[in-house]
Design a protein that fits this description.
about 650 residues, 5-stranded antiparallel beta sheet, alpha+beta, paralog of FGE (formylglycine-generating enzyme)
Length: about 650
């Protein structure tokens, strides 16, 4: 019976112990939560503890009231901030601190105070307990590590409070930091940053107020731009001021787009300069400037195109106005140079260009005038000078002639086909047809002879000529009649070239005796008397260009040889040509403007240029021949000139 009682008691004791063990386990499990209060439950000790300061700072960062005046961001846009660091900078406190029991107890109190955010400044703070532990055990590693971790925590949180613009919290944390060993050195940079914060805060509030009042970039010295710049002087890289400048520049660039939409390029340029003054290196500014440049060039090109159109339409005043607008937009625009050339061409060449080919269409029928070449304006020394080959008295005195405007000459001599069109249209009869005094080449004698049946339809030998041959057996009056007809059917002024025009065009800008150089040609440049030429019966020239042969005895189809530098064919070969001028024995009192020298009633005219039978002396650019105006010959044709 006693054994049964003992056994029952033991059974009940075991159950009790088991329950007690379970209760102890539960107590141990939840004991830290009962003993150590979290930050939200920690009682405030009259605002003296570090935890109260941090909690206040945290609540201030969560919602920044507009009237707080203590947060830098109350004056600007909100900023997302990371929460304050509440954990130790290093690893968690050791579960079993080392040292004598009294030191371990102080360390455990320090850990508990640290978790409660009683970091420093009170008798029950973590810093106090760590220092007491070090007084008892100066070499204790856990105490030293605790103070070091605590200093890092305070320093980190103070820096974050400064970044958040919470000067009050930052100052409190710096004060706590200074109470720790080495805290004075660590707190000095933070104190300097806090000093900047206290001066930056009012400037940012001022900048925000100026923005709201519309004083974004003006007036100078009293704008939000000025305030933000002052902030960045005090605090380089300040995020609020940086964003503020970007916002101000963005507003200016919006105005740039508006100005470009209205093609107000001067205003857009001024605004871009203003935006450059805000932030010269921003990508937004570079994009805006690129858009401006593209729009400016496009507008300038359009203005030049309109100026060209106005010039072509005969409105030079409007053209000049449009070109001036384009020049203000882009003085270096290549199209402006083209336009200026068009203006010069219009003034000097009626819109044509030197060297340009054109053919005027007939007004009342199909067909067109001969193809013309535009001869450039300029000046040259007409005649021959002492010491030059072939000098004769009728080529002197050499004198300067200036063409203030360009003119045009037919690219080649007038052909049989072209003269036939004139005859068919008018029924005109030439001098040789009326008088029977044409001249042809006689192969038997090697000379020209009279042939009553020869006329413009025939070649140099009296046989019918093909349409591409130069027309010959034409008197000066016949050539004039052709020019008058061209003027009527085209509405343009055609005439025989003046003697000065002919020599100027024949030289082609050269100063050598011939347009191709100084001696016998080295290639087939013109149809001339060459030493290698042979007639159908084997005749050769007594006075000819040495070692030269062009393959023709008599005229060749026009444009069978090379053009001179001005693009004129057969200008010094094939057939000689009539000019407008009366004959004068010399150039005394000759016109110096390139006009024809004409005396009323004169009988003799000037023939210019070499022919298929001309000697080297007769092919000189200065050579001129006195010929009766009523004469006709197998060696004389003509070409036409047109005023521009």
């Amino acid at each position: 019976m006693a054994a049964q009682i003992t056994t029952g008691w033991q059974r009940r004791a075991g159950i009790g112990l088991a329950v007690a063990a379970l209760m102890l386990a539960l107590i141990y499990r939840f004991l830290p939560g009962w003993l150590f209060l979290g930050p939200a439950d920690q009682p405030q000790a009259g605002g003296q503890g570090g935890g109260a300061l941090i909690d206040n700072a945290m609540s201030g960062l969560a919602v920044a009231p507009a009237s707080a005046g203590t947060s830098i961001y109350a004056a600007g846009p909100p900023l997302a901030l990371a929460p304050f660091a509440r954990d130790r900078a290093a690893s968690s406190p050791p579960a079993h601190p080392s040292g004598p029991p009294a030191v371990v107890a102080l360390l455990r109190r320090a850990y508990a105070a640290e978790r409660a955010e009683r970091w420093a400044g009170t008798p029950d703070s973590a810093a106090t307990y760590y220092q007491q532990a070090l007084q008892r055990a100066p070499g204790n590693a856990d105490a030293r590590a605790g103070l070091q971790s605590l200093a890092q925590l305070l320093e980190r949180n103070a820096a974050q409070a400064i970044r958040a613009g919470d000067a009050e919290t930052a100052q409190a944390l710096i004060n706590l930091l200074r109470e720790l060993p080495g805290g004075l050195d660590a707190g000095a940079p933070l104190q300097a940053r806090l000093f900047v914060l206290e001066h930056v805060q009012p400037l940012l509030r001022q900048a925000a107020a100026l923005e709201l009042a519309g004083h974004r970039v003006a007036p100078a010295g009293g704008s939000a731009l000025d305030a933000y710049r002052q902030v960045l002087v005090l605090d380089p890289g300040n995020p609020v001021a940086t964003r503020g400048l970007a916002r101000l520049q963005r507003d200016v660039l919006v105005q740039v787009r508006v100005a470009l939409a209205g093609e107000d390029f001067p205003r857009a340029a001024r605004l871009l300069a203003q935006a450059h003054g805000i932030d010269a290196g921003s990508t937004a500014l570079m994009a805006a400037r690129s858009n401006y440049e593209r729009a400016r060039v496009q507008r300038a090109r359009a203005l030049v195109a309109r100026a060209d159109a106005a010039l072509a339409a005969g409105s030079p005043a409007l053209a000049q106005q449009l070109a001036s607008q384009a020049r203000r937009l882009d003085p270096q625009l290549p199209q402006l140079a083209d336009y200026e050339q068009h203006v010069r061409d219009r003034k000097l060449y009626a819109g044509y260009r030197p060297g340009q080919l054109f053919a005027d269409g007939f007004l009342d029928r199909d067909g067109s005038a001969p193809t013309m070449v535009v001869i450039p304006a300029g000046s040259f020394l007409m005649g021959n000078r002492a010491g030059r080959p072939g000098l004769r008295g009728d080529q002197t005195p050499a004198h300067r002639v200036t063409f203030s405007r360009g003119f045009a000459l037919s690219r080649s001599e007038i052909t049989v086909a072209q003269f036939r069109a004139f005859v068919r249209a008018t029924g005109y009869r030439t001098g040789p047809e009326r008088n029977g005094d044409g001249l042809v080449y006689d192969e038997m004698t090697g000379r020209l002879r009279s042939d009553p049946a020869a006329n413009w339809r025939d070649g140099y030998d009296g046989e019918p000529a093909s349409g591409d041959m130069p027309v010959i057996n034409i008197t000066w009056a016949d050539a004039e009649a052709y020019c008058d007809w061209l003027s009527r059917v085209t509405g343009k002024r055609y005439a025989l070239p003046s003697e000065a025009e002919y020599e100027y065009a024949e030289r082609g800008g050269t100063v050598t005796p011939y347009w191709w150089g100084s001696g016998s040609p080295t290639q087939r440049v013109e149809n001339l008397a060459g030493a290698r030429d042979r007639s159908p019966r084997g005749r050769h020239w007594d006075n000819a260009f040495p070692k030269y042969g062009d393959g023709y005895w008599g005229p060749a189809p026009v444009m069978s040889f090379l053009p001179n530098p001005y693009g004129l064919f057969d200008i010094d070969g094939n057939v000689s040509e009539w000019t407008e001028d009366c004959w004068h024995d010399n150039y005394i009192r000759a016109p110096d403007d390139g006009s024809a020298w004409v005396n009323p009633g004169c009988q003799n005219r000037v023939v210019r240029g070499a022919s298929w039978a001309s000697t080297p002396e007769q092919a000189l650019s200065a050579w001129r021949i006195d010929t009766p105006g009523g004469a006709a010959s197998a060696r004389i044709g003509f070409r036409v000139a047109r005023a521009l």
